Amino acid sequence: MRALTDRIRCPVLVIHGRGDAVRPHDSGAALAAMTGGTLVSLGGSGHNPQSRDPVKINLTLRGFIRPRRSPTSAWTRARARPRRALFISSPIGLGHAQRDVAIARELRSIHPDLEIDWLAQDPVTRVLEAEGERIHPASAELASESGHIESESAEHDLHCFQAWRRMDEILVSNFMVFHDLVEAEPYDLWIGDEAWELDYFLHENPELKCAAYCWLTDFVGWLPMPDGGEREAFLTADYNAEMVDHIARFPRLRDRAIFVGNPDDIVPNRLGPDLPLIREWTEQHFDFAGYVSGFDPARFADREALRAELGYGQHQRVCLISVGGSGVGEHLLRRLIDAHPLAAAQVPGLRTIVVAGPRIDPDSLPRHDGLEVVGYVHNLYRHLAACDLAVVQGGLTTAMELTANRRPFIYFLLGHHFEQNFHVRHRLERYRAGRCMDIGSSPPEAIACAIAEEIGREVDYRPVESDGARRASQRIAELL
Amino acid sequence: MTRARYPDATGHVERGGVRVFWERYGDGEPTVLFLPTWTFIHSRCWKAQIPYLARHCRVLAFDPRGNGRSDRPNDPRLYAEREFAADALAVMDATGTERAVLVSLSKGAQRALLLAANHPQRVTGAAFIAPFFPASPLGGMRWRIMAHPRLRPALFIRPPVAAGWMKFNGAHWRADYPDFVEWFTRRIFNVPHSTKQIEDAVQWGLETDPDTLIASVAGDLAAPPTRRDQLALAERVRCPVLVISSPHDKITSHADAKALAQAAGGRLVSIPEGGHCPQARKPVAVNLALREFVRAFSFHDGFAPASRHWHDRLRSSP
């Protein structure tokens, strides 16, 4: 045989079913190896795949004759495939990661055979690694979105709409990574949690959609900051108009669109001067899952036990300081650290725990008596549930976790961050949750007074539902 | 502002006292050389392509004379198309690049044609986006007139009103350069929802100045601006050719793009709603078209589909 195959000089393609009961698959593999050819293995196929799986064979032959696309090196018959989903979770902050893991967990309980891969980057990957989730190796090719956002932030200020616009080349690049991945590997479902590149470029290139697709978000509508003037009002409306056009023109693209929250959480604004009300339009185009948190507050009903487990002393009054998963919060963090000695003078037994998060170096921050600094804390929500007061940035997830756990908290909205200033603030006011402060008018003395007033206070927050992850996953699971 | 990808090497080449800045990204085969377009903007116009192609092959780009990090001479002779073509060869030499697939935009088509026709051993393929190729009977007429050497002095006569194409005038540029930059950019991006692309191009346009731009438009084209001369040049191109164009391009006509595809024996890909810079407004469609084109040049031994390389890269990445 070797003498014969050695004489073959032309390109060779070998197609062989893995389940071939007439000629073993190994013989096809050997033929490919001996001729230096390409082997295409068909999982679940028998002998004569050209009659049982004609489309695959035709496309493979076409690729061989006119090699525009590669013959894929492995293929499995549709019925023999496990269910597979690709989760793309926004890396701007950690909030999406926590809720997406909860949704993934619920999805697996509905479809136990479901394989979920994640296309994700830091800091989302920290959560995923800690949870033992599968991060697709193509993730290494992603350009950093968090790094860009941090580069755009100044002292407690992040013009997130403009920062996002200026991220355009990163979004294209990351969409191309996604496209190469899904072209090479079949998935049944793509889930994008505020995966802007995915949603935008799919609507711009609708022919590239080759799986069911679910879009998740906790806000709808770019909104202008007042000092942005007419120009910013025009720009935000223009982006909203494009989104409205996209959805109207390609209603088939999003198989599910899920709003993380309730209709009452939506701001009363319009998408733009000649555009619909945000609430009206969102109600027409989204399902509402209620708030999706990464945990069930009922698990923390016994707060004393949790406090003991976390090492909080009986007479300690614990103030937790956290500024989210990106590096944007460093300025606020330093201001809050400065407030600690002043607050300690007013609050006996004050223990301040500063969570620097995954992207700020804890060793770079100053220390005081009764104040400790830690880096990334997995399952931070357990501390948020146990503390006597939290002081945080106005990111939605942290604030809502505190609301769900009925803890008093103070929040500082990032300057020029329209999502925090309008969408998050509206939602927190609806829940009667938290005390909003402005960093510009709050020297350490004022913050210390606020800490003394708020710590350990009883709250009357509107209750937060705890079944959001299940409701979202039920709607998503229908696509699998 | 951060980029999606940063160059692996940068440098300058110097020819006749003019320094030209280049960047290299990635490695592997083939090399794709992104040529500069008209000096109006610089190499950042490829920002949506470079990170993608650099994941799969080797990419070179350089700033045009007169913009970006290249020098800004004021002598029109230094802006002749043969100078840009010589810059391209110098960048290839400096980076040890034997052969490259060229990708050009708009006026970059002129230097790409010179390279492909005169240096076939160094050009394995040429992709043209919204090419400046004034060869169709009607669609190319405006540029044939505007680029005609005998009409060049008209470029310096201030028009009675600075409206529409009257703004394409050196005297107006000296009087109100930002007005021209804004107007020209809005003509490039004539499809809705292009605000970011417009902001980018305006910013790049303002990085050069009226005198430099005047010198750049007075440089000789690759061939005289007649249908016969332009077509004769394109017919000498022997390598594979891809032409990408948008039907409603308001700067160079779709008919010119068709004429180039026909004369050079290439394939035409139409991208609706792309305007004059589809690589910026429709980046995914352009990237995928370029990928299909570039793939054909990484066949080893005449077969082994290039796509296997792409695929394996994806799978073996850490």
Task: Describe this protein with a few key phrases.
heterodimer, A: 480 residues, alpha/beta, Rossmann fold, 7-stranded parallel beta sheet, 6-stranded parallel beta sheet, 16 strands, B: 318 residues, 8-stranded mixed beta sheet, 13 helices, 8 strands, globular, disordered C terminus
Q: Round the mean pLDDT of chain B to the nearest integer and report it.
A: 92
Relevant CATH superfamily of chain B: Alpha/Beta hydrolase fold, catalytic domain
Structural class of chain A, please? alpha/beta
Question: What are the low-pLDDT stretches of chain B, counting only 5+ consecutive residues below 50?
Answer: 299-318
CATH architecture annotation name of chain B: 3-Layer(aba) Sandwich
Outline of chain A, from the CA principal axes?
elongated
Please give the count of helices of chain B. Answer: 13
Q: So what's the CATH class of the largest domain in chain A?
A: Alpha Beta
Care to count the β-strands of chain A? 16
Ends distance of chain B: 27 Å
Question: Mind explaining what this structure looks like?
Answer:
The complex is a heterodimer of chains A (480) and B (318). Chain A contains 19 helices and 16 strands. In chain A, helix 5 (95-110) crosses helix 19. In chain A, the strands form three sheets. Chain A has a seven-stranded parallel sheet with strand order 6-5-4-7-8-9-10, sandwiched between helices. Chain A has a six-stranded parallel sheet with strand order 13-12-11-14-15-16, with helices on both faces. Chain A has a three-stranded parallel sheet with strand order 1-2-3. Chain A is an alpha/beta fold and 480 residues long. Chain A has helices at 2-6, 25-35, 49-52, 54-65, 95-110, 124-130, 145-151, 160-165, 168-184, 196-204, 229-249, 278-285, 303-309, 330-346, 380-386, 396-404, 418-430, 444-454, 468-477; strands spanning 13-17, 38-43, 74-76, 84-89, 115-119, 134-135, 189-193, 212-217, 256-260, 287-290, 317-322, 350-355, 371-374, 389-393, 409-412, 435-437. Chain A has three domains: 2-79, Rossmann fold (3-Layer(aba) Sandwich), CATH 3.40.50.1820; 82-293 and 469-477, Rossmann fold (3-Layer(aba) Sandwich), CATH 3.40.50.2000; 300-454, Glycogen Phosphorylase B (Rossmann fold). Chain B has 13 helices and eight strands. Chain B has a single domain, classed as Alpha/Beta hydrolase fold, catalytic domain (Rossmann fold), CATH 3.40.50.1820. Chain B is α/β, with parallel strands linked by helices and 318 residues long. The model of chain B is unreliable at 299-318 (pLDDT under 50). The interface between A and B is large, with 44 and 36 residues.
